[in-house]
Design a protein that fits this description.
The chain is of the alpha+beta class. The protein contains seven helices and 15 strands. 26% of the residues lie in helices and 14% in strands. The strands form four sheets. A five-stranded antiparallel β-sheet has the order 8-9-12-14-15, with helices on one face.
C-alpha cells in the first residue's frame, strides 16, 4: 500500500490494516496511530461527561441573570420613590398574593411587609432569578405609600437591618430589600396553588425566613442560597432630594412670573410654626407663607391668590411639601434686587445687571456658585437629616460645605457623598441658564 493511500484511511482502518498485514510501515507508525485513537476516545468521553453535568459557564450565566434582575428591581423602586406624586420617597406595599400587584394599604397598612416584588405596580416585566423564581420584597413600614403614615423626609430612617456574609451589619436603617430566593434548599417545598406558594419560609433561607427585621447575605450552602440587594436611606433620598430641589425652583419661578419678584426667605430662628416670609431676609428656609402684614418688599403676595396658606395648589408648591416638613430641609438664598417690587429693580433683575455700583439699590449683588456661575438670581439647597433631629437655628447646623453656610453670596457645588448629602438647584442668568448641580 502506498503512503498516499495510507494517509486517506481513517485511524481505525489503518489500525486494522496494520494488525492484518504486519507490514514494515505499519510497525513503524503503529505507535502514532494508537496515540491518535486514544486521544479521540478521550475527547469523546469528556464530551459525554460535560454534556450531562452543569457547566461553570451555565452557573455564571445564572448568577449574571440574577444580579441583573436584582439591580433592575432596586432601580425601579428608587425611581418609583422619586416620582411619587403624593408622597415622594414612599414605596408600594409588597405583593401578598403573588399576582404581581401591591396589596394595601388596607385601610392604613400593607397586607404584609414581606412578600413578592409587585412587578406590575412598578411597571416591570415578570422578573425571575436564575432559578426561575419570582423575586421577594421587604418594605420598612414607615415608607409605605399612605398619605397619613407620618412625615416622610430625610429624617425618616428605615427600619430594616442588613448583614453581609461575615455577619457584619452593613446598614441598620435600610428602606427596602429585594431577595432572589434561588432553588429549593433543605426541607423547603414549593407546590404552585398551595399555601407553600405564599409562605416566605419555603423561599427565603435561615436569617431571612425568621420574620424579624434582620436580613443577611451568606455563602451558598445546602441550607442557604438567597441573594439580595437593598435600598439604603442615602440612595433613596439622593434622588428624592434632587426632585424636591427642582420642584422648589420651579415654584419660585412660577411665583416670579406671576408677581415679578421672588419671595424673601423664612429665618432659621423664630420661623416656627408658620415659617412665614420675612421682608429683608435673603437667606433661610424656603417660606411656607409669603404675604406679610402690612405687605412689604419680597412678601407682598402669597403663593396662591386669596389663600390663607401659601402652598395649597400648583403651579406653586404641592401639598406634600408642607405635609412632610420638606421646608425644614430646603435652604433658600436670593439676590436682594430680585425681591424688590419696583419696575427699575425688575428691569435690573431681568437683565441680570444687579446694579453693581449700588446707585439705586445698594447690596444687591448676584449669587456666585464657584465653577458654575457668577450671576445666579436665587438657589436652593436640600439638605440631609437634621443633626440630633433638631431643626436648624443656623445654616451651619444643616449644610455640609462651609462655603455654603458662611452667610455671604458665594457658594460652592455640594461635595460628593459621603462628604455631603446636600443637593443644589439654582436659576442662573438668562444668557447662561443652569439647573441642578451635583
Amino acid at each position: 500500500m502506498r503512503w498516499g493511500e495510507q494517509s486517506m484511511m481513517r485511524p481505525t482502518e489503518w489500525l486494522a490494516h496494520c494488525l492484518a498485514h504486519r507490514c514494515h510501515a505499519c510497525r513503524k507508525q503503529r505507535g502514532q496511530t494508537l496515540l491518535i485513537v486514544l486521544l479521540l476516545l478521550g475527547m469523546a468521553g469528556a464530551a459525554l461527561v460535560y454534556g450531562f453535568s452543569p457547566t461553570t459557564a451555565s452557573v455564571r450565566e445564572h448568577d449574571r441573570h440574577t444580579s441583573a434582575v436584582l439591580a433592575q428591581a432596586r432601580e425601579a423602586l428608587i425611581g418609583r420613590a422619586v416620582a411619587d406624586v403624593n408622597r415622594p420617597g414612599s414605596l408600594p406595599c409588597p405583593d401578598a398574593d403573588n399576582d404581581g400587584s401591591a396589596d394595601g394599604p388596607f385601610p392604613t397598612d400593607c397586607t404584609a411587609y414581606v412578600g413578592r416584588l409587585p412587578w406590575r405596580t412598578l411597571g416591570l416585566p415578570d422578573l425571575r432569578d436564575g432559578s426561575g423564581e419570582r423575586l421577594w420584597y421587604v418594605l420598612s413600614s414607615n415608607f409605605r405609600d399612605y398619605l397619613n403614615a407620618g412625615a416622610l423626609n430625610p429624617d425618616t430612617a428605615g427600619q430594616l437591618v442588613v448583614k453581609n456574609s461575615a455577619g457584619t451589619v452593613v446598614d441598620n436603617a435600610a428602606v427596602a430589600i429585594v431577595i432572589a430566593p434561588g432553588s429549593v434548599v433543605g426541607t423547603q417545598t414549593r407546590t404552585p396553588g398551595t399555601p407553600d406558594e405564599l409562605n416566605a419560609g419555603m423561599y427565603l433561607d435561615e436569617e431571612n425566613a425568621n420574620g424579624d427585621a434582620i436580613y443577611a447575605s451568606a455563602l451558598v450552602s445546602p441550607t442557604f442560597n438567597d441573594r439580595l440587594v437593598y435600598v439604603s436611606h442615602d440612595a433613596l433620598f439622593a434622588g428624592v432630594s434632587t426632585r424636591v430641589a427642582k420642584e422648589v425652583i420651579s415654584a419660585l419661578e412660577n411665583y416670579r412670573a406671576a408677581n415679578h419678584y421672588y419671595p424673601a426667605a423664612s429665618p432659621y430662628t423664630a420661623g416656627a410654626p408658620n415659617y412665614d416670609c420675612v421682608p429683608g431676609q435673603f437667606q433661610g428656609y424656603a417660606p411656607l407663607n409669603i404675604q406679610s402684614t402690612p405687605p412689604q418688599d419680597g412678601c407682598k403676595k402669597n403663593w396662591e391668590t386669596g389663600s390663607s396658606h401659601g402652598i395649597l395648589n400648583q403651579p406653586q408648591l404641592p401639598p406634600w411639601f408642607a405635609d412632610n416638613n420638606w421646608n425644614l430641609f430646603t435652604h433658600y438664598s436670593v439676590a436682594r434686587i430680585c425681591t424688590i417690587d419696583e419696575s427699575a429693580a425688575r428691569a435690573l433683575c431681568d437683565s441680570d445687571a444687579y446694579d453693581p455700583t449700588g446707585t439705586l439699590y445698594p447690596g444687591t449683588s448676584p449669587l456666585t456658585v464657584t465653577g458654575v456661575t457668577t450671576n445666579a438670581r436665587m438657589l436652593v439647597i436640600v439638605s440631609g437629616p437634621t443633626r440630633n433631629g433638631l431643626a436648624c437655628t443656623a445654616s451651619t447646623q444643616c449644610l455640609e460645605d462651609a462655603a455654603n453656610s458662611d452667610g455671604n453670596n458665594t457658594y460652592v457645588k455640594p461635595s460628593r457623598f459621603p462628604a455631603s448629602n446636600d443637593h443644589m438647584a439654582l436659576t442662573c442668568s438668562a444668557a447662561a441658564p443652569c439647573g441642578v448641580v451635583p
